[in-house]
């Protein structure tokens, strides 16, 4: 039997830990067992139970205080993650060999982990060797996505994680509840983006012809391959949590080998698609 994992990634403060905690609560409510592993050696506070915590292996504070290393916070984190990559047997001991388990990995927010450092890729390969089907879940804060040029940089961050990890990836715009009605309407076009209209939007902002050309080339590439789309997420809205989970389950084929479970009574009232989610938002 396969095992299942979500690698919860994204820039600092994008909502990764909050996502893990709401996902645990949501799954408990629908009778699904999901556990969380903290992979952030600098994290201090959690409002979910931890199955394993990287800080038992190594902590950023200890690395920074070490006189022979003399790292700052970011160098310290990179050191910790490299140490972690050399000690995956610690993780193996924590995870055990439970068939059919489902684990969320709450990752650190340093973007370099997903762009060019090898540790996340090494983790994915290790998990796959332990029979995990791994889905990348890349979170970006919707407030930083409402303008075209910010959106392009969010897309590129998600894309570099996707390309470097080579696993199915679901991209999520978090904190949708913080957007005004107008911004929510505006952001709809960025969820499944037509990059050619993004080019037009950014053409008015960018002054340099050289950058206009570069933006056009990047947008064209993204559009041609339909490489990036986003799901809306609001941690206080069960419907959006449900939609996100369905997409992830589908990506890693969770539930294929399990027995069919009776849906809860009010389950069928929940919208299962993005269109229904937005229809509800408009109706409110
Ligand atoms: N309103 C709202 N706030 C959110 C949501 N998700 C996260 N937040 C808030 O955003 C802040 C950062 O959330 P975290 O979950 O700590 O973000 P993180 O990505 O784990 O941050 P780092 O681990 O430091 O990179 C917290 O104050 C959360 O309460 C959301 O969907 N809606
Ligand atoms: Mg966090």
Automatic annotation (TrEMBL):
Small GTPase required for proper localization of RNA polymerase II (RNAPII). May act at an RNAP assembly step prior to nuclear import. The keyword GTP-binding applies. Keywords: GTP-binding, Hydrolase, Nucleotide-binding. Residues 261-284 are annotated as: Disordered. CDD domains: GPN3. This is GPN-loop GTPase 3. Pfam families: ATP_bind_1 (PF03029). Belongs to the GPN-loop GTPase family. One of its GO terms (molecular function) is GTPase activity. Residues 261-273 have a biased composition (Basic and acidic residues).
């Amino acid at each position: 039997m396969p095992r299942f994992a979500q690698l919860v990634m994204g820039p600092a403060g994008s909502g990764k830990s909050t996502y893990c905690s709401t996902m645990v609560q949501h799954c408990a409510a629908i009778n699904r067992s999901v556990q969380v592993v903290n992979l952030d050696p600098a994290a201090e506070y959690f409002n979910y139970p931890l199955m394993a915590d990287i800080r038992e292996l190594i902590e950023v504070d200890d690395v920074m205080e070490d006189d022979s290393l003399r790292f700052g916070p970011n160098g310290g984190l990179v050191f910790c993650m490299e140490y972690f990559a050399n000690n995956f047997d610690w993780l193996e001991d924590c995870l055990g060999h439970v068939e059919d388990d489902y684990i969320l990995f709450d990752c650190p927010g340093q973007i370099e982990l997903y762009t060019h450092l090898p540790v996340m890729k090494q983790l994915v390969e290790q998990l796959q060797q332990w029979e995990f089907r791994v889905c990348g879940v890349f979170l970006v804060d919707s407030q930083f996505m409402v303008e075209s040029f910010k959106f392009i940089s969010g897309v590129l961050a998600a894309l570099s994680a996707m390309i470097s990890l080579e696993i199915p990836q679901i991209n999520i715009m978090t904190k949708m509840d913080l957007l005004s009605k107008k911004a929510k309407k505006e952001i709809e076009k960025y969820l499944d983006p037509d990059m050619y209209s993004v080019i037009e939007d950014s053409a008015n902002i960018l002054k340099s012809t050289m950058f206009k050309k570069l933006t056009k080339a990047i947008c064209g590439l993204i559009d041609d391959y339909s490489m990036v789309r986003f799901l809306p997420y609001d941690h206080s809205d069960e419907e959006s949590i449900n939609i996100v989970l369905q997409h992830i389950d589908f990506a890693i084929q969770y539930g294929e080998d399990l027995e069919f479970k009776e849906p809860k009574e009010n389950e069928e009232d929940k919208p299962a698609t993005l269109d229904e989610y937005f229809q509800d938002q408009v109706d409110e």
